[in-house]
Design brief:
This protein is of the alpha/beta class. Helices cover 30% and strands 20% of the residues. It has a 4-stranded parallel beta sheet with strand order 2-1-3-4, covered by helices on one side. Strands 7-10-11-12 form a 4-stranded parallel beta sheet, with no helix packed on it. Strands 13-14-15 form a 3-stranded parallel beta sheet. The longest helix is centred in the last third of the chain and has 15 residues, at 302-316. The chain binds iron/sulfur cluster.
Length: 317
């Protein structure tokens, strides 16, 4: 069979489902490759992870087309509604196959999930609807790692998994550099978990303080982590701060300043960006810019910095 693959989001971040489908079809002896509109296919897979990516617009030259991915299952402005029926899971034998990293030319990196699901069920997040409201182990590291120097984990809440000890031991034994690309749930931190994190090779760590009202649960844990040997320097200790979702600007700034005082870098994530105010967008630009933020400690002064910059630019021309 001739199999075509379409990564609707583009090729900036490798699509794990397509890498697994590629591996599975190659194992069946099929001819697999990126979709070429000038060729004819028996079957084409079209996958989209991000809701805001426009769909593939052209007629597909194939006997059968299968569409899948989270991007087809999130509906409504701001992406608040996830419809599981529009996002069918891969068959087990595909889901648990070693991915075809070569599809994206990846040689030094392994990507995958050790756990799925999250007990939190945050209103702005689809994980509970997609994967269930419980973090559970779904794989051993060897399922998608075979000695690469870098491991990217897409787990939504590995610290909430009852098997976290076993999984962290597997990660430590790999001696690879670990990237928890979905961040870690600070509320789940304990001294024992922090010690397990410390045993890993990590360049950058991400937490989140999404809801202002979680202050009492999040802050003591972030303080505990900041005092530990697992804490990297502030550029590499990042805390996502969700804004434009039920908080005031004062509460957003309080989170940003508090995190900075603790030695973290706050990273503003804007909910429902197209409908966010100018102030929210300015706050995002100010806080997330690694050159401006250290030079301009107060958001209130950000506009003045911009003016100065403009004047300097004027003198250049
Ligand atoms: S803690 Fe994170 S993964 Fe879990 S529901 Fe909330 S946003 Fe989603």
């Amino acid at each position: 069979m001739k199999i075509g693959l379409i990564d609707v989001d583009g090729h900036n971040f490798p699509n794990l489902a397509l890498m697994k489908l590629s591996a599975w079809h190659k194992r069946q002896g099929d001819d697999v490759g990126w979709y070429d509109p000038f060729s004819r296919y028996d079957l084409v897979y079209q996958s989209k992870v991000f809701a805001n990516t426009p769909d593939y617009q052209f007629i597909i030259n194939a006997d059968k087309v299968v569409k899948g991915g989270t991007g087809y299952a999130i509906h409504g402005a701001g992406g608040e509604h996830y419809c599981k029926a529009d996002d069918p899971a891969l068959p087990d034998e595909v889901e648990h196959i070693y991915p075809d990293y070569g599809l994206y030319g990846i040689t030094d990196k392994a990507i995958g999930f050790l756990t799925r699901g999250c007990p939190r069920g945050c209103l702005f997040c689809i994980v509970a609807g997609k994967e269930g409201k419980r973090s559970r182990k779904v794989a051993d590291l060897s399922e998608f790692w075979s000695g690469q120097k870098n491991i990217v984990l897409c787990d939504p809440n590995i610290l909430a998994c009852p098997d976290w000890r076993d999984l962290f031991q597997q990660l430590a034994d790999s001696r690879a550099t670990i990237d928890f690309n979905q961040g870690l749930d600070a509320r789940m931190l304990t001294e024992e978990k922090i010690a397990a994190i410390e045993r890993l090779k990590i360049k950058e760590i991400h937490f989140a303080w999404d809801r202002y009202e979680d202050k009492a649960a999040v802050l003591p844990k972030l303080k505990m982590f900041a005092k530990s040997g697992a804490m990297p320097n502030s550029h590499n200790a990042i805390v996502y701060v969700l804004v434009n979702h039920g908080t005031t600007i004062e509460q957003d700034l309080e989170r940003i300043y508090t995190l900075r005082d603790l030695g973290y870098w706050a990273y503003v994530m804007v909910y429902d960006k197209p409908h966010a105010s100018r102030t929210i967008h300015d706050m995002e630009r100010w806080c997330n810019n690694r050159f401006i933020f250290p030079k301009c400690p107060r958001f209130e002064d950000y506009g003045k910095v911009e003016e100065v910059k403009d004047e300097r630019q004027l003198t250049l021309f």
